[in-house]
Amino acid sequence: MKKRNLKQIFKTTALALMMFSSVQAFAVSDRVVAIVGKSAILQSELDQSVAEAQHQLQAQKKEAPPLNILQAQILNQLIIQNAQLEQVKRYAIQADEKSLNEAVLKVANQSGAKSLEAFQQKLDKIAPGTYETLRERVADDLLIQRLRQQQVMSRIKISDQDVDNFLKSPEGQAAIGGQAHVLHMRISGEASASELNSTAKEIKAALAHNNDVKSLEKQFSKGKIKVDGADMGYRSLSDIPTELSARVSVIDVGQTTELITAQDGVHVLKLVDRKSNDQKALVPQFKARHILIKTSEVVTPESAKQTIENIYNRINAGGDFSTFAATYSNDPGSARDGGSLGWVTPGMMVPEFDKVMQSSPVGKVSQPFESQFGWHILEVTDTRQQDMTKEYQRRMARQILGERQFDAELDSWLRELKANTYVEIKDPALKQQ
């Protein structure tokens, strides 16, 4: 089973729910067709899912497999889904109401409804309870996505060396907009292979201290040997033939590739320079210090607020921020340094802290504010624009490598999950051959 992103899931869910007008209720007297862990799959669930699959295949103008095969395939999908939902319960994974509403609203928008209320009215006209059924299905999809992210991502290991290798590769260079200044020498002609290779070796040695491709052409083009040189300038590695860019991506600036034998002769390339996209990732940073009064079973929010307000007033009256931080702050890491947090990038702190930090003038102590940790005051002492290009590129490389491994790890995890889950199929005809 391949990973499905939320957009695909919502599209499938919306399509399934829109079918309720044409799909009638199934047998009132349900029977259990499979046991998965502590849950059961009913015949009506299987029938409904098979009907949805047939409807989708018809809409896509694809031929459906024989009914018994389709039923077995759909049952296997339901087994895997239920096995995942069993894990959701085990790890107590929950979907918050805000995320669920946003997800359902995406489905609503796809169906033409602009609000949850309008969407509910539209669905419940088809059949009472249809909207609630959709919410449950979307909630299950969200929970399964969170479970997969939690379980599968923990299996993916990407080393710093993996990141380095990717960034040097043509794909990595193309992803970050990397360019290479390359010299290209091609040695061809009617001479023997050994003569061509011998000349190519001499040119390779000459390239170590000579970048004038035209002079090298004249120097080494003799008799049956023809030398063509080209200064390719700065080119994206994605614009260079793959068999050549792969060689350039693994050498350092100033080095030449090994001899590359091809049908049209012997090639040698030299990497003169390498540069990334000129566009830099400049990120605002704030040099900040703070004082925190934590709430606890002993210190109530009201008491913490009174304490921080008292400290705030005393600092505004001329008290030293560093001294008060060292004396009263409940953040031991920063208190030892006068409350200093060093340079802080937005997103590093909780939202309440970020909001106050980004709106505070330099040199002015903020009004007391509350976060999940307690009551704070902070002071921004300086700001700067920090070049985070390299960090951004490495983060992007990790994301690409992670996504590349995700499907394979997901398949492996799902196989293990199914193998380790108790499954009993009641009807032998529904077992996949």
TrEMBL record:
One of its GO terms (molecular function) is unfolded protein binding. Residues 1-27 form the signal peptide. InterPro entries: OMP_Chaperone_SurA (IPR050280), PPIase_dom_sf (IPR046357), PPIase_PpiC (IPR000297), PPIase_SurA (IPR023034), SurA_N (IPR015391), Trigger_fact/SurA_dom_sf (IPR027304). It catalyses: [protein]-peptidylproline (omega=180) = [protein]-peptidylproline (omega=0). It is found in: Periplasm. It holds the Pfam family SurA_N. It is an enzyme of class 5 (isomerase). One of its GO terms (cellular component) is outer membrane-bounded periplasmic space. Residues 177-273, 283-382 form the PpiC domain. HAMAP family: Chaperone_SurA (MF_01183). The PPIase activity resides only in the second parvulin domain. The N-terminal region and the C-terminal tail are necessary and sufficient for the chaperone activity of SurA. The PPIase activity is dispensable for SurA to function as a chaperone. The N-terminal region and the C-terminal tail are also required for porin recognition. This is Chaperone SurA. The gene is surA.
